[in-house]
Write a structure and sequence with these properties.
Number of helices: 1
Distance between the termini: 21 Å
Protein name: DUF2922 domain-containing protein
Number of domains: 1
Oligomer: single chain
Largest sheet: 3 strands, antiparallel
Helix content: 10-25%
Organism: [Anoxybacillus] calidus
Shape: globular
Number of strands: 3
Radius of gyration: 15 Å
Length: 73
């Protein structure tokens, strides 16, 4: 099974990267909508990081990983 997640990357006041993962995103991913949502997250200032407020967008990426369950004896 392939599991997917959308990773939103922000910079905080300390210049460190803060990542927010959204599991099972709706595809296809709309880059313009992602950018708009990231702007709204920064403006609303609802997430706290150890390096201060989120101040800028760094990037976004779609992550995919293949997961194989093992049957244990």
């Amino acid at each position: 099974m392939v599991e997917k997640a959308l990773e939103l990357q922000f910079l905080n006041q300390a210049g460190k990267i803060v990542r927010i993962l959204i599991e099972n995103p709706i595809e296809p991913i709309n880059a313009a909508a992602v950018s708009t949502v990231m702007d709204a997250i920064i403006t609303a200032n609802v997430f706290v990081s150890s390096g201060g407020d989120l101040v800028a967008k760094k990037g976004a990426r779609l992550l995919a990983s293949e997961v194989t369950e093992l049957v244990l004896a």
